[in-house]
Amino acid sequence: MKRMKTTEAVGQVLCHDITQIIPGVTKDAVFRKGHIIREEDIPVLLSVGKDSVYIWENDETMMHENDAAEVLYRMTANEHMHPSDVKEGKIEAIADTEGLLKVDREKLKKVNAFGEMMIATRHGNTVVKKGDKLAGTRIIPLVIKKDKMQEAEKICDGTPILKILPFTVKKAAIITTGNEVYHGRIKDAFTPVIEQKIAEFGAEMMFHEIFDDNDRKITDGCLRAIEAGADIVFCTGGMSVDPDDKTPLAIKNTGAEMISYGSPVLPGAMFLLSYYRKGDKVIPICGLPGCAMYNRRTIFDLVLPRLMAADPVTADELASLGEGGLCLNCKVCTFPNCGFGKGW
Which residue numbers delimit the MoaB/Mog domain (predicted)? Predict the structure, then answer.
């Protein structure tokens, strides 16, 4: 690559895109990499501020920005994704399916700390839909040493930074608890909320029973739901610390592994997560606090996508939700396009 005065570059081959920016009208390349400069191109180049241009000279030790972007894309993207066209040295990863986006943060940080290159992604553990933009990649200079790109590839070691987990949990059980609902004193308003939210992930309720505050009955209901084929069990009601709230005890007595009773999220502090193992199958059993029934967004909205993608949630991950775990209850809710729950 060499630099030449624009007025002397007729017949030469451009080694990079030339971008024209007209505010409110366009931001696009007026000439693409590989364009052979003609006499009539000179005024256009000068009008976009290019008194000099970079002309391609073959150098086996260097890699052009477009080729480097291809390398960065391979380091970033996985199955269920496809690349955009290369434009001005940048390639974007586009989702081919709906699912849960996972980001290997350590690898992403190492690549971005390596110098002269960058990968920008969406937040991990968020829902993406087909056609969504997931990441953008490019190098910072126009050309980069090939051996540096080869060293960068070793960071990923054949395992890309991104992956999409399709939603696989389809059959849900709801165990409604509480004397007031069981005896018909109030209407069950919780179950319709859960049904609506799981339907967004292609799941449906296949088992539903209502119990009074009897922990043995609740335990039995959970186990019968699992025997009936439930992929996930939601228990509603009885999640506070009142002596007559027996749902946490009932879930524990199923034999499920208790991950956490309590979360650093408001609304949602009394959330319970456990996993019941039946052979090779792992079935989440969740205790949902009352806030999930009447608040627009709660811990339930943060955890549900991961449960629907069969992505195991750890106690440490739940603990990390403290930063960003305070919902501001905005008058106009923009979730998930806000900071709520982006801490894990």
Answer: 173-309
CATH class of 2-55: alpha beta
Q: State phi, psi for 33 to the nearest 5 degrees.
A: -50, 135
The pLDDT value recorded for residue 245 is 79
- Sign, Cα dihedral of 283, 289, 292, 298: negative
Domain edges within the chain: 2-55, 62-165, 171-322
User: Dihedral of CA 329/330/331/332: which sign?
Assistant: negative
Residue type, 66: N
Q: What residue type is 331 in one-letter code?
A: K
Contacts of 321 (CB under 8 A, 6+ apart): 263, 264, 265, 299, 302, 341, 343, 344
The model's pTM is 0.85
pLDDT of 58 strictly over 70: no
pLDDT digits (tens, 9 = 90+) for 177-196: 999 999 999 999 999 999 99
Q: Under a CB-based contact definition with an 8 Å cutoff, are residues 93 and 83 in contact?
A: yes
Reduce the DSSP state of residue 235 to 3 states and report it: strand
CA distance 130 to 119: 20
Per residue in 22-32, pLDDT (tens digit) is 787 677 778 88
Three-state secondary structure call for residue 97:
coil
- CATH class entry, domain 171-322: alpha beta
CATH code assigned to 62-165: 3.90.1170.30
Q: What is the pLDDT of residues 108-136, one digit of tens each?
A: 999 999 999 999 999 999 999 999 999 99
220 half-sphere exposure, CB direction, 13 A CA radius: 8
CB 236 within 8 A of CB 293: yes
List the one residue out of 177, 12, 1, 158 whose CA is nearest residue 74. 158
Cβ burial of 281 (10 Å; 0-12, 13-18, 19+) is exposed
